[in-house]
Design a protein that fits this description.
By secondary structure, this protein is an alpha/beta fold. The chain has a single domain (14-95), classed as Restriction Endonuclease, CATH 3.40.91.20. The protein has helices at 28-44, 58-61, 71-80, and strands spanning 14-16, 19-23, 50-56, 90-95. A four-stranded mixed beta sheet has the order 1-2-3-4. A hairpin with a 2-residue loop joins strand 1 and strand 2 (19-23). The mean pLDDT is 85.
Length: 97
């Protein structure tokens, strides 16, 4: 039986000097995907040393379309996962109007 490798394509908004930057003003599901999957894939793949996630703060999100993720919610999701999660160094930045 021959095992065949499965290749996939993963991209981020910006990578330079082993730092990944994601600007996420989209649906809330994409925030969790960025923080728990995308940054982790680049970290485990030895492409980055740190990830940066830029999100709207609640004060800005309330002026946007429904379903947009926001800083306070993303930070809460990180904190409730407990110590060591995510296992990649991550900086979360909130933008307000």
């Amino acid at each position: 039986m021959k095992i065949q490798a499965m290749y996939s394509y993963n991209q981020t908004d910006f990578v330079k000097d082993r730092i990944a930057l994601e600007i996420q003003f989209g649906k809330y599901a994409f925030v969790a995907y960025d923080m728990f999957v995308k940054h982790m894939a680049f970290f485990v793949g030895d492409v980055i040393d740190v990830g940066i996630e830029i999100l709207p703060m609640k004060s800005l999100q309330s002026r946007m379309s429904s379903g947009v993720g926001y800083y306070e919610g993303g930070l809460y999701d990180l904190l409730r996962q407990g110590r060591g999660t995510p296992a990649v160094p991550l900086v979360v930045v909130g933008v307000e109007p």
